[in-house]
Amino acid sequence: MYIHTESPPQTKLLDDLLWTFQQNSFIPHAILSDAGETPPPVQLGHDAEPDASHQVLINLAPEVPLFFSRFERVAELVNSDATLRRQGRSRYSFYKQRGYPLRTHEIKH
After folding, report:
1. Those residues with Cβ within 8 angstroms of residue 56's Cβ, 6 or more apart along the chain or in another chain
2. What residue segments make up the domains of the chain, in order of their start?
3. pTM assigned to the model
4. Residue 78 and residue 86: Cα distance in Å, rounded?
5. Which of 35, 74, 80, 102 shows its CA 20 to 30 Å from the CA of 55?
6. CA 95, CA 57: separation in Å to the nearest integer?
7. Over its length of 109 residues, how does the chain's per-residue pLDDT go in tens digits?
8. Which residues sit opposite 56 in a β-bridge?
9. Calpha distance 35→104 (Å, rounded)
10. Are 57 and 74 in contact (CB under 8 A)?
């Protein structure tokens, strides 16, 4: 899995959160540039294209990454913030115009 962030601070924040999410849980991950020869199953990045070994892209950036089509699945996360919703709708339209099958899931808390 590759998680594409919008900036170095967001990559660092996500990296920190994945280390400290819960005391007894751990998600093996690394920042793409630090992944080494045997990368973990989850990699994070914002300024480099991942190799073709990833199957799932989670996009946290406001734009569709240029390399999105090499993934089997793409997940876009959108919350109730007006700006983020507008950006999410734009990305949804981008995928729809290109004929990608789309599914939406509303998560209520």
Report:
1. 1, 2, 71, 72, 73, 74, 75
2. 2-97
3. 0.88
4. 9
5. 80
6. 14
7. 999 999 999 999 999 988 877 777 778 899 988 877 888 889 999 988 888 778 999 999 999 999 999 999 999 998 889 999 999 999 999 999 999 999 998 888 6
8. 73
9. 31
10. yes
